[in-house]
UniProtKB/TrEMBL annotation:
Name the UniProt record assigns to this protein: histidine kinase
Source organism of this protein record: Sphaerisporangium dianthi
Class of enzymatic activity (EC top level): transferase
CDD domains named among the record's database cross-references: HATPase_UhpB-NarQ-NarX-like
Transmembrane segments: 30-47, 54-76, 88-108, 120-141
Annotated ranges, domain Histidine kinase: 289-373
Cross-referenced PROSITE patterns: HIS_KIN
Catalytic activity: ATP + protein L-histidine = ADP + protein N-phospho-L-histidine
Record GO terms (molecular function): kinase activity
Keyword terms of this UniProt record: ATP-binding, Kinase, Membrane, Nucleotide-binding, Phosphoprotein, Transferase, Transmembrane, Transmembrane helix, Two-component regulatory system
Length: 373
């Protein structure tokens, strides 16, 4: 659209110049002038593809009728696109030839046409205004564009380098964390599994055998999960690694989690309310983690307190509620980082949900999550 408007403007200005300029041959009818002016408009519209047709029309129009508008536009695009040495010199040389032809044609006529083209001062002013100045403007615009393009390329290159450095730093930090987890956590859990297996083989107490088998199973499951986490840390974008990962637990695995707590002597009751239906996998995973963290806190701080787990299916929300009674007999205090509920709240809020934790009047504790489903 921009070049359509520019072509229309050049057509109108060219027609105005050749109609109002003295010295135009009287034998040229108006339709001829309109056709010539229309040719300059069409050539201007074609400039984005090639500006040489406009230069040719401008040369003919200026040499014949001193029609300068197309020559101005073509000179600007010559400075904008031609190389700064040989191409510019060749174009300016061609323009000098056109000006010479125009002077010869003007010398054959009288009036203003002769004064404009044959007088050295007037010819120099016309050449500078219609050719030199547009070429200089085109050169300036091109130089400015090149500077901006170079600055943009440099900024993009620096941004890419910064991203690569950040990715490298993240990869190094992930590798460091993976090494620490493997050397410390995995080693300790492996020792737990080995000792549980030895206890299971050597003892004659049925209850001790059952507990040792439970500890060993939980330890092996923890090692498998830890192995998956270490794989993600070391190669988070590997397709092979993604295919080998175990799917994270969902609500279908909740009963197994509750059975593990029951085997430790805690009375855990599950209640499903509302119309039980499958929900999004991420929602089910988050709900599972809510119950898991709440039961972990019960083990740490509430001894063998009875616990109720409620899964409430609403029309557009899934509610998870874990409520335990007043703490029973104190157990050995287990070490913890203190970030369990903080991370759990972040996990729930990422899905647009809310997490509420509060102490109950009777001494119990409540964990309640509302997750859009």
């Amino acid at each position: 659209m921009r070049f359509v408007l520019l072509g229309g403007g050049v057509f109108a200005l060219s027609l105005l110049v050749v109609q109002g300029q003295a010295g135009v041959p009287s034998d040229l009818p108006l339709p001829v002038l309109v056709v010539l002016s229309a040719a300059t408009g069409v050539a201007t519209w074609w400039v984005p593809r090639s500006w040489w047709p406009l230069a040719a029309v401008g040369a003919v129009g200026y040499a014949w009728l001193v029609m300068w508008p197309p020559l101005v536009i073509s000179s600007y695009y010559a400075g904008l696109t031609l190389s700064r040495s040989r191409g510019i010199v060749a174009y300016l040389g061609g323009c000098l030839i056109v000006c010479g032809i125009s002077a010869v044609v003007g010398a054959c006529q009288d009036g203003l046409r002769e004064v404009m083209t044959t007088n050295p001062g007037n010819a120099l002013v016309m050449a500078l205004a219609m050719i030199g100045l547009p070429v200089a403007v085109g050169l300036y615009v091109r130089a400015k564009r090149e500077v901006l393009a170079a600055a943009r390329e440099r900024a993009e290159r620096l941004e890419r380098e910064q991203v690569l450095r950040a990715e490298q730093a993240r990869a190094q930090e992930r590798a460091r964390i993976a090494r620490e987890m493997h050397d410390v956590v995995a080693h300790r859990v492996s020792l737990i599994v080995l000792h549980a297996g030895a206890l299971e083989v050597r003892t004659d107490d049925d209850e001790a055998v059952r507990v040792a088998a439970l500890i060993g199973g939980i330890g092996r499951e923890a090692l498998a999960n830890l192995r998956d986490v270490l794989g993600v840390l070391r190669s988070p974008r590997s397709p092979d690694r993604e295919g080998a990962l175990r799917p994270p637990p969902t609500l279908t695995d909740l009963d197994r989690l509750l059975d593990q707590s029951r085997s430790l002597g805690i009375t855990v009751t599950r209640h499903d309310e509302g119309e039980v239906r499958p929900v999004e996998t991420t929602v089910e995973r988050t709900a599972y983690r809510v119950v898991q963290e709440a039961l972990t806190n019960v083990h740490k701080h509430a001894g063998d307190a009875g616990t109720d787990v409620r899964i409430r299916y609403g029309p557009d929300v899934l509610e998870v509620e874990v409520r335990n009674d007043a703490p029973g007999a104190p157990r050995e205090e287990l070490p913890g980082a203190g970030w369990g509920l903080v991370g759990l709240r972040e996990r729930v809020e990422l899905l647009g949900g809310t997490l509420r934790t509060s102490a109950e009047d009777g001494g119990g504790f409540l964990v309640r999550a509302r997750i859009p489903a």
